[in-house]
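Example 3.2
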Amino acid sequence: MLAGSRFEAVERAPMKSLHVAIVGAGPAGSSAATFLAQQGARVTLLERGRFPRDKICGDGCTPRTLWMLERLGLGTLPSTEAAPVDAIYAISPGGVVLDMAIPTRLFGGKACVIPRQVLDERLVQRAVQSGAELREGVRVEGLEREANGIVLRCRDGEDLRADIVLGCDGSPSVVRRALGAPDFPDHEGAFAVRAYYENVRLTRPRSMAFYWEKDLLPAYGWIFPLPDGRANVGLGLRADQLAASGVKLPELMERFCASPHVAAELTGARRVGKVKGHHLPFGSFARHTHFDRALLLGDAAGFVNPLTGEGIEFALESGAFAAEAVAEAVAAGDLSERGLGGYARRWQTRFRTAFQLNRRLMFAFERPRLLDRTFRAAIRNEHVRDELADVISGEASRISWRFLAGVALGR
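Structure, written as tokens:
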């Protein structure tokens, strides 16, 4: 185990002498690989699957996500791969309908929905173009310390030694466990399921649609448009609430798809493949992210919005923060936990307040009358509507008194 171990400060060396091993080639891993390789580091990107490969997800890319994709050099993906989105459509438990444009102040107000099978492959291709080495079909089973590095133990393959290891292997994370970080408690995580549908004729094909059905609370669901008449349909619920209910999430998914509002959107559509589920660790429990010669990124660190389950934008940004912190540590000649502390300072400044706020807002979004009242206030009050758009888009770090007053007064 590496938890609590100490490494001696390394000699000053340029980035080109640094070998970084990244476990997991999703958005976090590919983002870090791209930025590090561009700085001259030797980067080995290990992926247990083979591209193109699926990743269970809502596939929604927020305006900030698109901004990060531009930073990475991907630019705008063609409409055959990404469905453009510029609005939010939401229905409260009491049937209050909120239909609003994403404010242009949020990175131009443009979002999209990209299947992860497409997005992840584009991201890893970008990393390889930048100079990273991709090794597919490699399953990492553990880590061991050496005097001047870390050795990755791989199944059915040669072990790999590196100066620094980045754990980007999702939830549950082999790297996280090997580093001694605790598992996420049930109340600080959720489970979500999603299915793909084809031949879908959505009434609002440029909107991300959210549904808080009264009979399914505290679960909430979504329908996100995809190219070529397809859609991503899903449902999420906090892990401890799911356990207490005694209900299986696929059963709730069937009830969700049969509910009147959703059934109307899926009329004539056909489900493609199976309903698949995954675990979402909440960012409100993200406390263990940097170690001697190691960092945790993306889902492995818990960088997921507790309210919406969004994680792609945080994964991409954590990759940038990791690259900056590693370069900082190399320049200082210190790859210890302390030397890599710039990583924690960066993500905490950007993520922590938003994670804590959205964790508290879960209470409001599980109360039918309060959610109905909030939606009604948003329809009448532009300020409430703008702040609610910030919340749903993952950009809110605080709730103003004007918002609270608007909801309380209903106007």
